[in-house]
């Protein structure tokens, strides 16, 4: 019978010779396995867990018309009668209403949002536009729907005398001057 290289040959196991009967005077020597010689693996004490102190995230703040500071811990939608977006994100926006006796400010005029350490302002297709004044730069008029990165000290003019100023990043646990105190300095 010829065999191919792919043939598998099965053979019956070799018969095990019967063990001789032992009496109490016989000594049995058997080979130990490595795990028996070494023993079970040592149980390590749990490593002390080190976790850096968890600090509250830092958030920028802004003031509208030099009133009370408002945190950017969530997006802010600013306008004459602001509303939430039609498709609600996980975090609902803070709605900030501003006066507009001449109706120059759109219902939901702009959105300010902090992304990490960056703040962006978006003109939400406003009717009368948004002007961004970055310190040391010429005023910039945003196109409807345009997003612009701003820095502390930037003032956003949305019309009808409404001006929004981005304040410096607030570190947790650090007291800061109120907007009125800043104006007196």
From TrEMBL:
<keyword id="KW-0597">Phosphoprotein</keyword>
<feature type="region of interest" description="Disordered">
    <location>
        <begin position="1"/>
        <end position="24"/>
    </location>
</feature>
<feature type="domain" description="FHA">
    <location>
        <begin position="102"/>
        <end position="159"/>
    </location>
</feature>
<protein>
    <submittedName>
        <fullName>FHA domain-containing protein</fullName>
    </submittedName>
</protein>
<dbReference type="Pfam" id="PF00498">
    <property type="entry name" value="FHA"/>
</dbReference>
<dbReference type="InterPro" id="IPR000253">
    <property type="entry name" value="FHA_dom"/>
</dbReference>
<dbReference type="InterPro" id="IPR008984">
    <property type="entry name" value="SMAD_FHA_dom_sf"/>
</dbReference>
